[in-house]
Design a protein that fits this description.
With about 475 residues, this protein is of the alpha+beta class. The chain is built from 15 helices and five strands. Helix 5 runs parallel beside helix 7 (about 145-165), helix 6 runs parallel beside helix 9 (about 200-285) and helix 9 crosses helix 14.
Length: about 475
Amino acid sequence: MSTRPGQESGLGGPTGLQESDVRRRGPVGRALAARPWASDVLWSVVVLLVGGLGTLAMRSTVRGSTALGLFDPSSSPLHTMTVAWLAGSVVTSSLLLVRRSRPLLVAGALTMAGVVSLGFAGVLGVVGLGLACALYSVASQRTSRTAWAAAVASFLVLGAACWWWERIGVAEMLLWMEPATAEEDYVPAAFLAAPPFSGGRRSVSLLVLLVLLGLGMATGSVARARRLHAAGLLERYRAVVRERDSSAALARAAERARIAREMHDVVAHSLSVMVALSDGAGAAMDRAPDRSREALRELSATGRSALLGMQDVLQALDPRGGEAAAAGRLADPVDADLRVVLDRFRAVGMSVAESGVELVAALETATGLAVVRIVTEALTNVLRHAPGAVAVDVIIRQLDDALEVEVRDDGGRLPSLGGGTGRGLIGMRERADLIGGSLTAGPRPEGGWYVRLLLPVSRDGSGIDT
């Protein structure tokens, strides 16, 4: 899973996937999403323009109605309705500027503004359109129950006001608009009473109001559903990223532990043997030169082996592709034969007794190698921490359901070569866990130290599920 340039993925920083990527907005949508106030201003301007154009249609309707004798010219209906219409447009446009932060408050205020306009002049104007915008914000930001409660309450209140007080609505604008041939100064011969209350005309207004509020609710609900869906996708994506990063961190930790084990094997074992060989060669230089030369040859061989092992470890760390080539050599070191390992320790003067070493050769390659490494580390610890030990035993025996490998000593007779860090014991336990075994270590009651590995292997050499 890749991230875009300049972006990070992880627990502490932003992920490569953003909400705009999930919702797939166009350039205009992304610009409005980045500047929410621009959308509020845009809708306010639209409502103001619609209100201005509606004022012209309303004035034409009032003049036509007056010319038909439906309104009494002496009551100045044109002036009253024009003022109410324009005032409603300004109030609606102003309230829409804060609809995003206070959607319920704006919806309630617009409902009351519509009631006042209908009661004062008998016109609703663009208040219904503004209320639809406010309900869009309510539906997109609040729960469905809250949004539907606000929508039903607004429709009932405004619907009742329209039913009783509306004088100029959609039906009136369509039926009573001023004819194109009407004269501006035309006055009917006598004032005709306004047509009686018509349920049909009022139903048209209520239907238009219902459609407006329904559109606001529907679009707001869709916007909320899309936002929640995008949030769910983002959360799932971030969970995947966190899991990936966690897996990568665990893999890096495991790789560091593996490299640490390899480094410890190379450095601790080889250098400990080299120190012991050099000390022995120096001590025997005068009284046993042949033995000293043999120790120096063994010292050189051990150094070359250590150098090869270190090169393999460093090549495994090379990011240019050396890991695969080095991994094979790390898995198959020079000292893969347990007898060779034991002979090397004997060469530095350690008295090592062996029993059942041939059982290791029957194990699978990876398992046998791990056993050899564990025995090597145990003997290295004897060399470092119990120098001069008289008896060192490597005992390998087959039990009913496990292979037991034990390395024990009787304690050193000389000062220790230095304190340990515990890395070797940790590495042995890690190797035992990797091959499904268990490792214990500690002091012996009679003196000295022991390391015991139990490996679930049956007598026929097959592994046992643990």
